[in-house]
Amino acid sequence: MKRHRELLTIGIDVGGTSLRASVVDSSGQVIDSAQSPTPHTAAALEHGLDRAVQELAARHPVSAVGLAVAGFIDSDRTSVRFAPHLPWIDTPVASQMSDRIGLPVLLEHDANSAAWAEYRFGAAAGGRNVVMVSIGTGIGAALLIDGRIYRGSYGVAPELGHIQVVPDGRACPCGKRGCWERYCSGTALVDTAIELLAADQASSTILAREVFLDPGSLTGRRIASAAQDGDEIARRTMADFARWLGVGLALVSDVYDPDLIVIAGGVATSSSQFLDEARGHHARLTTGAGHRPLARIASTQLGEAAGMIGAADLARSEFLIDAR
Question: Least enclosed by CB within 10 Å: which of 73, 104, 119, 135?
Fold first, then answer.
């Protein structure tokens, strides 16, 4: 334990359903973890965060905390402007938490945290200009330029999930129509499967029978599993997903010209079923294909731990650089 002294930090992934905290060392290794449901009020959430830190700090000599949050973070990385699944609006989360726990606290967007972890310790190691596309219920994204996180002028870049790929397409909760994540996400998998089943009502596949018996049973994970088992509707759904992933990644390559794109998020666990096909669409649709190098497209190596690892490492870099 002594060899970790002054180098251990805590990273917490503040999700809409769970708080996942880990003690992380300077090589990106998770030393210890704690998890609890995410409370629904600000006071209860802050108490839950404090309790997670206190639990881990009682067992390890931690020196700083990083919070990975899905929401808009101010440019100083101290306040949450807005987080759709958390009870914070224009809240100075970092300073308030630091005052309560007696440790420095850094805020970072969850996709930025995960991308940083992959860049430092995972699939993006050795990359220079890196885009992470995190695909779950929707699409989160992060961009590293010359090894530095790019946040934009106001701290909200890049919102790739809401690039319009189909004018007047599927309605999106953001208020627009045809956003990329409405065709390339866990939610989109379900919508596409339902559309295919409606267009082929004579289908007698396993997935069709399951949906007939229980329409609410359909999930992205179940579709991926059914595709793996050879279900025709599920396979067509995954093929459509791969096509839209390739379409979006080609746009990403045209705009950012990255050398590496990392696919992360819950859907990435099924990447063996769609990633090769998506690479083909990306190669075909990227402007200048055949006359320029194409970005390498890789799947996450750190999985769900990436956000915690990245937040912990960013806190270490911000507060403890002299202790390395």
Answer: 104
d(CA 25, CA 210): 46
pLDDT (0 to 100) of residue 202: 64
Task: Report the C-alpha gap between 223 and 226 in whole angstroms.
Answer: 5
DSSP secondary structure code for residue 38 in this structure: P
pLDDT for the residue numbered 138: 87
Contact yes or no for 31/25 (Cβ under 8 A): yes
> What pLDDT, on the 0 to 100 scale, is given for residue 278?
96
Q: In whole angstroms, give the CA distance from residue 172 to residue 74.
A: 25
Which CATH code for domain 125-300?
3.30.420.40
Same fold, 2-115+304-323 and 125-300: yes
In terms of phi and psi (left: phi > 0; alpha: psi -120 to 50; beta: otherwise), the region of 303 is left
What is the structure's pLDDT at 3? 46
pLDDT at 155: 78
Rounded to an integer, what distance in angstroms lies between the CA atom of residue 279 and that of residue 297? Answer: 7
Q: How far is CA 56 from the centre of its chain?
A: 24
Cα separation, 35 vs 28, in Å, equals: 19
Domain extents for the chain?
2-115+304-323, 125-300
Q: What is the CATH number of domain 2-115+304-323?
A: 3.30.420.40
Measured CA to CA, the distance from residue 262 to residue 253 in angstroms comes to 12
Say what the pTM is: 0.86
Q: What is the pLDDT of residue 324?
A: 33
Q: Which parts of the chain register pLDDT below 50?
A: 1-4, 322-324
Residue-level pLDDT at 321: 64
Rounded CA separation 103/173 (Å): 37
